[in-house]
Amino acid sequence: MSDSHDSPGGKRGPESKVSRLLRERGFDGFGAELERRWTAEADARSSLRDLADAFNRRLLRAALAERNERALDGEIETLYRVLTDDDVSSGARTKAVHRLERTGVDVERLESDFVSHRAMRTYLTSYRGVTPPSETDRDGGDLRERRTETIRRLLGRVERVTEKSLSDLAAADELDIDPETAELYVDVRVHCPDCNSQYTVEDLIDRCGCDCD
User: Fold this and answer.
1) Which of 198, 129, 199, 188 lies closest to 159 in space, CA to CA?
2) Of residues 115, 117, 118, 121, the one with CA closest to residue 133
3) What tens digit of pLDDT does each residue of 68-114 get?
4) Domain encompassing residue 16
5) Beta-carbon neighbour count of residue 148 at 10 Å?
6) Looking at the 3D structure of the chain, how many domains does it have?
């Protein structure tokens, strides 16, 4: 039986960064999931950037789990955004790095393991032998990618404005909190009353819907 991240038919191509990390981290079955999500019908397909982000968030979650550290609800998404979003303030990034380092995570190694959408494309096309979706079919994935990026930027702005407001209030003795040590988390969650499921908005877009049939 072939490994879960083998190329179709068991014919292994040159090992890519993604395939190496799948093997080293023991992400059994995740390679096949990435392929399914990229080759799904247009309205359910994930873009390469979506897949790269999902892969990187799994790396982050695994890094914490290896140190018996359980992430709080929504914390993985927040930490990943702070580590990768150029619009995040240096203070927010420093707090995120310290949060991970306190648990023993090698942040420099973790970030070097993060993959790009180009690396994801190389893995899917060269290693797994998947035929890329047509340009027309990719439009749906691109729309999700654009909307997700818009939400990320808005969340980053909310975080920066909130962080500055807290600092200003603390400096004016209007707020009894140390903004240098306080940890700020900003996310948007979506709840479906029909199936009683709840997701961060990024996860909801990434999975293309909730648990309703």
Assistant:
1) 188
2) 121
3) 988 887 889 999 999 998 888 888 899 999 999 999 999 999 999 99
4) 8-203
5) 19
6) 1
